[in-house]
Amino acid sequence: MSSHTKKNISAIDLRDRDPSLPPLIAEPQNTIAVLQKYDFQFKKQFGQNFLIDLHVLGKIAASADLKEDDLCLEIGPGIGSLTQIMAERTKKVVAVEIDDRLISILNENLAAYPNVDLVHADFMSLDLAAFFKEHGLDRPVKVVANLPYYITTPIIMGLFESGVPLSMVVVMVQEEVAQRMQAKPGSKEYGALSLAVQYYAEPYLAAHVPKNCFIPRPNVGSAVIRLTRREKPPVRTANEKLMFSLIRASFGQRRKTLVNSLSGSPQLSFSKEEVTEALHDIGLDEKVRGEALDLEAFARLADRLNKKGPLFG
Ligand code: SAM
Question: pTM to 2 decimals?
Answer without folding.
Answer: 0.94
